[in-house]
Predict the 3D structure of the following.
Amino acid sequence: MMKKIETFIEKIQNAKSILVAGHKNPDGDSMCSALAMMRLIELNFQKKPTVMFDGNVPRTLDYVPLRAEAKFHQHIPEGSQYDLCILVDYGTRKNLGEIEKYVNATDYVIEFDHHFNDDIIGNLCFDDEEKAATSQIIYDVIRKAKFNIDQDIIDLLTLAIITDTGNFKFVRHSDVLIDAAQLVDAGADMTRLVNLLNNKDKKTVLVESKAVSNAEFFMKGRLALATIRNDDYKKLDGRGELVLSLLAQIHGVQYVVLLKEQKEDRIGISFRSRKNPINKIAETFGGGGHLCAAGAVVQDSIDNVRDQVINAFKGM
């Protein structure tokens, strides 16, 4: 690990321009990890990386520290190039969207990720699928390298953990709790940070509530399936996590699926499971993810995808 950290430090020291980015439609772990990495480099190396994203950022992240520093790719000057790229929480190449062209034009790529990926981009990789959030991997490097950190970094790393564990509902290993406790000791105020995320539009909450109310149940109640049609999807800010969370609270429900009609014949699928692996089902739809939280995007009608999803769960 220390050899990799030495290379990490050397690459940053030698870089004239640095890009930091994560997956398209960034969630809390991707956005907050990217901003924490930017501030870490600024604080320890006196260099200011560019944080770039593609897609939509949910309103719940509007007030995370340094949010204004993250730039939509279309707001980056035409022809911008970077000699070092740091990818955080990107999952796999196809999740980068328009960011991929900037990554491909970069001389050297460093990645920090906790997703399974059979198409590694990084020349230097800090990857660990056992971590609950990518920010944990960054925090581990911070401690080993004895980097300086400030309140913004502490808060961003903590917010990444809070969001990717669903407020600690999806914890499989104690290390994430240990990391969170250390961040609290360093100055993270959990109550303040959780409240900071309570920032949804009324129309989003109403759309999510409607999807929960109209959910269907299969496999004697073990599978809950919710649908958001295109007209309502346009009002949705984020991925519909409230739908997934509420349905998962129902007694007897073991699996939750949310279908989102992003466009005509383009359906986003979110899969959740209480304990049994769900990522293999996501892979049959061309997606992937974590054992109990995965997703996919399918080019087909929402009714066809609904039928295919129900069939995929037969026998489970």
